[in-house]
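Technical appendix A lists one of the benchmark inputs used to test multi-chain prediction within the project. The record comprises two sequence entries:
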Amino acid sequence: MQLRDLGEFGLIDRIERAARRLGPSRGVVLGIGDDAAVLRVGPREDLVVTTDALVEDVHFRWSSESPRIVGRRALVASLSDLAAMGARPLGFTCALVAPPALSLRTLDGVLNGLLREAQTHSCPLVGGNLSRGRETSLTLTAIGAVGRGRALTRSGARFGDRICVTGSLGGVALDRARAERGLARVRRVPSPRLGAGRALTRLRGMGACIDVSDGLEADLQHLLGPSAMGATLDLAAVPRPPRFAARCARLGLDPDRLALAGGEDYELLFTLRRWAPSVAVLSRRLGVPVAEIGRVGVAGSGRGRSRDGKGGWRHF
Amino acid sequence: MQLRDLGEFGLIDRIERAARRLGPSRGVVLGIGDDAAVLRVGPREDLVVTTDALVEDVHFRWSSESPRIVGRRALVASLSDLAAMGARPLGFTCALVAPPALSLRTLDGVLNGLLREAQTHSCPLVGGNLSRGRETSLTLTAIGAVGRGRALTRSGARFGDRICVTGSLGGVALDRARAERGLARVRRVPSPRLGAGRALTRLRGMGACIDVSDGLEADLQHLLGPSAMGATLDLAAVPRPPRFAARCARLGLDPDRLALAGGEDYELLFTLRRWAPSVAVLSRRLGVPVAEIGRVGVAGSGRGRSRDGKGGWRHF
């Protein structure tokens, strides 16, 4: 059965019913089915809004991922942006563009993936849009709330800040490389660091924050860009998944490359003042592993240079 | 020059600069350029969120509309949804999917159209997403605020309610018919009824509300659907633009058809209790013409039937 057999309203009905099965949600005054959704934030909260799109053959391929994984990844990308701002999710909208010949089975898979992540992270589907098109795309807008004036931003880094990252990097890129070679389909989807982001909004000595979506190197540039600062990274300190080097070697891949430029890790990359808590204390508070991987320095001034000269450091 | 010559970051920079030229906006704590935007609502307000997509060759054609009109229409569709909820706009995000060969001139036109409407209605662009794709699409999410618990909804109609509509219907459909015949390009874009929507949230005797986007008949069905009620419409009372019948006749079009099913009028269609103010009083308060066009009745029961029997009434 294809999308065209169901029609727009049949499809909306199908999505509504699937979303309702998850039960009512705190903070949602009015969900799917009206001209717009109505949400409620606390009196001392700011709103956080982020929009992301996943386009067929650009961001995903039906041949290398199940529809369920595509749906999950779409929401995780948006939730990770909320995490990077320190926000708690309130709800999300989804605009689906799809060819009329798309199978209902594929659609249901995407929808199940979306709603599974939605339930896991208490971020209900509150509205959206359906349209036909030549290729499939999913555009998600996630709405969150954060304590007034407490949103984490990319612009809080200072000279001498410690650079930290949650979890590990490169694992998603390795999975993806395996999938591209036809060795396996993508199975793992990282978990957005929502709890860790919220904990960081309460941390004294917090600097700038971003989520690692383009890859560590690229996102570190985004983090330092506004301040015109540079950084020194300790390559050996960049956390990687278990048995990462061996698994990369088997495919002839450079583990450093994957950890630094892989992307879609959805870990939080942030800076801390020198006097902020140690990573051990931080790991406990955030509930996730935290590694210290470098220092913020002055770009090109030499002040941010390597300390060991063995090539184990990267300069930006 | 084409999109591919500019690259993603060049393009983001271009959009950021255009958006910044409009100046700072009240309610926007953090705009374009971070992982997400940060907005602020009042302590006694609810959030309103709506997502709409415009897809090339489905919702617009470059041959019959200027890029500027496409941009304007995209935002107007979203703002009209906010109007139908009685909300004031806070800001919007835009996800643009476009082929790399799209000309920069076209992109700039769309952007100018979007930002012109954004400025007119104090609804700043606060974020978005860019991606390549086979066809152009614009997915907009508009965020608004409304007094807590005061959002207008589709579900407030009661038996005996008067059915009213703002402005006039059919004008956009006529323009579109002319454009499809190659007689003229679409030039007019309706104005979303934001002020009228806000005034309706303060009205005693207010029933249900929706914006006319699919056409009067279809949207009236949406309005009555949840209540399983019917309605009687006085065809002659449905407001139309000046010289509408004559202009339709010249193209061999049925003016009733266009007024009832044209769509994209973006007027507000709403119901009022019998004892609510007269349309004359209402027009003054809302600042737009208001016409009373029928009554809510019980579907198929005969209670909502025609009073004159001359075929000038429609039953639902």
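The first helix of chain A runs from residue 3 to 20. The longest strand of chain A covers residues 45-55. Comparable benchmark entries are summarised in Table A2.
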